[in-house]
Design a protein that fits this description.
Chain lengths: 297, 370
C-alpha cells in the first residue's frame, strides 16, 4: 500500500469558503485604501509643483492690467499675448535669448561628446583609479563657484576670453560635465554587457560593437541627458553674470533688470525661462518609463 | 576539422582561482557538456575558449590553431548566451543576419542562411518582429538561430535553457539535441543541470572548484563516478554513500555496515585489502538495490522511514545508523512507513570510495565494467 489512502477531497467544506470570502473582501478593502492614499499623496505632490507653474502661465497670458490687479485670476481670461509681447520686445531680451540658446547648444554638444567616452569607461571598465576619478568628477561640483569667481574672471580677461559667448559655453561645459558624465555612465551601465560580448562573438571589434549595439541602445538615454545639459546651461545665472557684460544670457539679463521692472515682465520672463524645462520633463518622462522595460529584457 | 584543445588553463579573479590547470580535449564534431555546480569555473572556461576572458596561463587551440590571444571574432566560433543576448534594437531577421553581415557575406547567402536557420527553429514567420514582443522561448530560438546561421565550426552554449520554464526546457532539450546532431559543429555546452548533461552530451566533463573531476561518456559518469562528488552531483536521487568498515578474515575481505557484512565482487578484493580495519564509503544508486518483503540471508533488514510515491517508482527513505539511504522500488511494491524491508546490494553495482580523499577505489575502472 502506498501512503495515499484517503480519497482526494475535491470540494472544500462550506465554512472555510465563507471565511475566505470575508477575508477576500477585507483584503480588497485594505488594498483599495492603500492605493487611494498613494493616489492622494501623489496628487498633493503634483499640485504643489504644478500650481505655481499654472499661475505663472496664467499671468503670462493675461493682459498687463490683470497682472497688476488683485485678486489674481485663476485662468487667463481674457487671454492675451500682450504681456509676453511686452517681455519679448523689451530691450536686450531677444539678444539675450539668442545668446542663451547658442551657449546652451555649444554646452550640450561639448558636454555630451566628452561624457560619452568618459561615461562608457566608468560604466564598463575597472581601471586603476576609477573610483578616484569618479570622485574627482564630482568634486568639481563641490567647489562653490563663488570661491572661483575672481580668479576665473581675471584668467578670462587675461586670455582675452571675457564677455564672449563661447567662453561662457566652455564654463558651462565644465559645470555640467560631472552631471552629464554620471548620467551617461548610468545609461551605459543599463545596456547589458552580454549584448556587447555577443556582438564581438559575431564579428565585431570592441569599437564596432560599441557603435553597432551599445550606442543605438543608449541613444534615448543620451538624448535625455543632452536635454538635461541644455536646461542646466539655460538656467545657469552666476557664471553668466560673472563672465559676461554685454553678451548677457537670458537669466543674467532678466536678473539684471528684475528690480527695475514690473510684475508683467517678471511673470512673462519666468514663464519663458520655464519652457525648456517643461520640454525636458516631457521627453525624459517618456524615456524613464521606457528604459527599464526595454533594456532589461 | 575543429577539435578544441585546452592546455593547463588557469584563470584567477584576484586570489580566487576560477579555472585551475584544466586540460580539455574535444574531438571534431563532438558534443561535450561542462557540468558542475555554480562557481565551479565551467562558464569561465567556456568564456576563455570564446575569447571573452583571457586566460592567465595555458593555451587554447581550435582546429590546430593557437587562439589563446585572438579576439573572439577571429576564432571562427559562435555562441548562445544564457540571457539570449539578442539585440533589442534589431528585428529578428537582422539579429540572425548579424554575424553574416559582419563577415560581409553576399546578400543572397545572408538571405538563404537566415531563412534556413529560422526554419530550423520554427521562427520563419517572426522575422519582422522585434525581440521585445516575443516570449522567452521564442527569444531563445532567435539566439540559437543567430548562432547556427554563421555555420562556424565551433558552437559554444552557456546554459542556454536555464531561463526557460520546466516544460519548455524539456521540449527545447530534445529539439536542440536533434538540431545539433544534424549540424557539423564541435559543441561545448555549459550547464548545471545534470539531466541536460546526461541526455545531450557525447561526453560530460564534471567540474568542481576549477578542476575537471571526470571526463567521460554519460553512462560511465553515471555508473562509475570517479569520486564521491560526481556520484552525489549526478543522479536524482544522488548516489547513496554508507559508512562501512573493511575487515580481512582468513583470505576474504568483508565490509561491515553495522552488523551486516557485504562481500565485494572478486576484482575488488585486492584493492580493498589495503583498507583493512579502515572505514570507507559504500556507494550505490537508489535503483540498483533489490528490495524484498521477506528476509533473505544476503539482505539487510531495515526500517522504512518515509515512502514517496513518484508514479514511476516509489522512493523509500531508510536510516542505517547515521546514514540516510534512498531506495527506489517498483510502484507495485507495497510498503508503509515504519515497516521492515530487506535490501540486497548487488556487489557489481557497489562503488567503493576512499573516505579521506573521496576518490573511487578500483583496480581499474574498465575491469569493473567488463
Amino acid at each position: 500500500m502506498t501512503t495515499i489512502e484517503t480519497p482526494i477531497n475535491t470540494t472544500p467544506s462550506r465554512p472555510s469558503m465563507e471565511a475566505t470570502a470575508v477575508d477576500r473582501k477585507r483584503a480588497k478593502r485594505r488594498h483599495s485604501i492603500r492605493r487611494g492614499s498613494i493616489y492622494i499623496l501623489a496628487c498633493i505632490i503634483a499640485l504643489w509643483i504644478l500650481l505655481p507653474i499654472w499661475l505663472i502661465g496664467t499671468m503670462a497670458f493675461s493682459t498687463p492690467e490683470d497682472v497688476r490687479n488683485y485678486p489674481k485670476h485663476f485662468a487667463p481670461v481674457p487671454a492675451s499675448t500682450e504681456t509676453m509681447d511686452f517681455f519679448l520686445n523689451t530691450d536686450g531680451i531677444q539678444r539675450a535669448a539668442r545668446n542663451s540658446i547658442v551657449v546652451a547648444i555649444i554646452t550640450l554638444i561639448l558636454s555630451t561628446l566628452l561624457a560619452i567616452p568618459a561615461g562608457y569607461a566608468i560604466a564598463r571598465y575597472l581601471f586603476p583609479g576609477r573610483d578616484a576619478i569618479r570622485l574627482g568628477i564630482l568634486s568639481v561640483r563641490a567647489f562653490p563657484i563663488v570661491v572661483l569667481a575672481v580668479p576665473l574672471a581675471i584668467t578670462f580677461i587675461k586670455w582675452d576670453m571675457y564677455d564672449k559667448v563661447y567662453s561662457l559655453a566652455l564654463m558651462h561645459t565644465a559645470l555640467t560635465l560631472p552631471t552629464t558624465i554620471l548620467v551617461v555612465a548610468s545609461v551605459f551601465a543599463g545596456v547589458p554587457y552580454e549584448l556587447e560580448e555577443a556582438a564581438r562573438i559575431f564579428g565585431c571589434t570592441p569599437a564596432k560593437a560599441f557603435w553597432k549595439v551599445v550606442l543605438p541602445l543608449a541613444t534615448p538615454g543620451i538624448a535625455a541627458s543632452a536635454i538635461l545639459t541644455f536646461v542646466l546651461s539655460w538656467n545657469e545665472v552666476f557664471a553668466a553674470i560673472l563672465l559676461t557684460l554685454t553678451n548677457r544670457t537670458l537669466p543674467a539679463q532678466i536678473l539684471y533688470t528684475l528690480d527695475k521692472s514690473g510684475d508683467p515682465f517678471k511673470f512673462a520672463g519666468g514663464f519663458f525661462m520655464l519652457i525648456p524645462s517643461l520640454i525636458f520633463i516631457f521627453f525624459i518622462r517618456r524615456y524613464l518609463f521606457n528604459m527599464y522595460g526595454q533594456l532589461n529584457k | 576539422m575543429a577539435e578544441i584543445v585546452v592546455e593547463k588553463a588557469i584563470k584567477r579573479f584576484g586570489k580566487f582561482v576560477a579555472v585551475d590547470e584544466v586540460d580539455l580535449m574535444v574531438n571534431d564534431r563532438e558534443f561535450v557538456v561542462l557540468l558542475g555546480p555554480s562557481g565551479c569555473g565551467k562558464t569561465t572556461l567556456l568564456r576563455a575558449i570564446a575569447g571573452l576572458g583571457m586566460l592567465d596561463e595555458g593555451r587554447v587551440m581550435i582546429g590546430n590553431r593557437d587562439v589563446t590571444y585572438l579576439p573572439p571574432k577571429d576564432r571562427n566560433i559562435s555562441m548562445v548566451f544564457q540571457n539570449y543576448a539578442i539585440f533589442p534594437h534589431m528585428k529578428v531577421y537582422d539579429n540572425i543576419a548579424f554575424g553574416l553581415k559582419m563577415r560581409k557575406s553576399p546578400k543572397e547567402v545572408v538571405e538563404e542562411r537566415v531563412q534556413n536557420a529560422a526554419k530550423l527553429l520554427h521562427i520563419e514567420n517572426m522575422l519582422d518582429r522585434y525581440p521585445g514582443a516575443m516570449s522567452g522561448g521564442q527569444r531563445q530560438r532567435v539566439a540559437v538561430a543567430r548562432a547556427i546561421a554563421v555555420e562556424s565550426e565551433v558552437l559554444l552554449m552557456d546554459e542556454p535553457l536555464s531561463n526557460l520554464d520546466a516544460l519548455l526546457r524539456l521540449e527545447m532539450r530534445a529539439e536542440l539535441k536533434s538540431l545539433l546532431g544534424r549540424l557539423k559543429a564541435t559543441t561545448i555546452y555549459v550547464t548545471h543541470d545534470q539531466i541536460e548533461a546526461l541526455s545531450m552530451g557525447d561526453r560530460i566533463a564534471v567540474m568542481k572548484q576549477g578542476q575537471i573531476l571526470q571526463f567521460d561518456n554519460p553512462t560511465r559518469v553515471y555508473d562509475l563516478p570517479a569520486n564521491q562528488f560526481v556520484g552525489s552531483f549526478i543522479g536524482n536521487p544522488p548516489m547513496n554513500f554508507l559508512r562501512g568498515q573493511v575487515q580481512r578474515e582468513n583470505g576474504t575481505v568483508k565490509v561491515k555496515i553495522g552488523d551486516f557484512h557485504l562481500s565485494p565482487s572478486e576484482e575488488m578484493v585486492e584493492p580493498l585489502q589495503g583498507y583493512d580495519g579502515k572505514f570507507i564509503f559504500v556507494g550505490i544508486r537508489a535503483e540498483n538495490m533489490e528490495t524484498l518483503a521477506s528476509p533473505a540471508p544476503d539482505a539487510l533488514a531495515v526500517m522504512v522511514e518515509v515512502v514517496e510515491p513518484l508514479g514511476s517508482q516509489n522512493l523509500l527513505t531508510i536510516r542505517i545508523s547515521e546514514d540516510i539511504l534512498k531506495v527506489s522500488t517498483h510502484p507495485d511494491f507495497k510498503v508503509h512507513a515504519h515497516e521492515t524491508v530487506y535490501i540486497r546490494f548487488p556487489p557489481a553495482k557497489i562503488r567503493w570510495m576512499d573516505r579521506d580523499t573521496g576518490q573511487a577505489i578500483a583496480p581499474s575502472l574498465d575491469k569493473v565494467l567488463a
